[in-house]
Amino acid sequence: MKQTMSLAIIVCAMVAACTVFAKAPPQQAENCKTCHGLTGKSPNAQWPNLAGQNKAYLVIQLKAFRDGKRENPAMTPYVADLTDEDIETLAEYYASRQRDIEADGDAELVETGRQLSASCTACHGQDGKPVANEWPIIAGQYAAYLEQQLKAYKKGERIHPAMQAAIANFDEKDFAALAAYYSQLEP
After folding, report:
1. Is 36 helix (H, G, I), strand (E, B) or coil?
2. Please, is 102 exposed, middle or buried when counting C-beta atoms within 10 Å of its C-beta (0-12, 13-18, 19+)?
3. Burial of 49: CB neighbours in 10 Å, binned 0-12, 13-18, 19+
4. Other CB atoms within 10 Å distance of the CB of residue 5
5. What backbone phi and psi angles, to 5 degrees, belong to 14?
6. Residue 176 to residue 118: CA distance in whole angstroms
7. How far apart are CA 20 and CA 178, in angstroms?
8. How far is the C-alpha of 167 from the C-alpha of 154, rounded, in Å?
9. Apex 178 CA angle, 174 and 179, nearest 5
10. CA–CA separation, 40 vs 17, rounded Å?
């Protein structure tokens, strides 16, 4: 009995250690931690949380930054030398992390945002979780970041035909309302 119990304790300790090490950040995440946090929780509402994001979406975006298809001077030096394998490693790590709810949008705009969200649900689902893994989870994301990205699509700084079509008739007040609504949804 004593040996069985000792063996059980050893096995549990090994499983716990493997879980801790499996979630340890990869070396490639060292360059990401200042803006996106080591665990994917950004310290600044202007930058996206990466924790719990769709892996396929992260891969697409990191490659777009690296290859110059998506421009961001702050990102360029950090992604320029990433290999496809590095990008897969980073995306897998951040996708495996626990998401948090930011709920930092203007509370008075949430209901307006909910009403406007009908234009978003075909791609981003009823709950801010997309129907395709190549698209971002927007539930629980910082409102300031979401609003900034909507403005970038409207100005043509970010290009995606479906996004341009969905927000064509929206203005900055609508963007603030949508951002407030999606920021408070459970990821």
Report:
1. helix
2. buried
3. buried
4. 9
5. -65, -40
6. 15
7. 37
8. 7
9. 115
10. 21
Residues 25, 92 contacting (CB under 8 angstroms): no
User: Nearest CA to 26 among 106, 85, 100?
Assistant: 85
The whole-angstrom separation of Cα 108 and Cα 176 is 10
Helix axes 143-155 and 172-183, enclosed angle (nearest 10): 140
CA distance 145 to 34: 16
The number of C-alpha atoms within 13 Å of 28 and in the hemisphere containing its C-beta is 17
Q: 3-class SS at 152?
A: helix
The C-alpha atoms of residue 53 and residue 9 are separated, in whole angstroms, by 34
Q: Write down the pLDDT at residue 18.
A: 43
Q: What is the DSSP string of 54-103?
A: -HHHHHHHHHHHHTTSS--TTTHHHHTT--HHHHHHHHHHHHTSPP----
| pLDDT computed for residue 136 by the predictor | 97
Whole-prediction pTM: 0.85
Q: What is the model's pLDDT at position 187?
A: 81
Q: Which of 89, 65, 93, 92 is nearest to 79 (CA)?
A: 65
Integer Rg of the chain from CA: 19
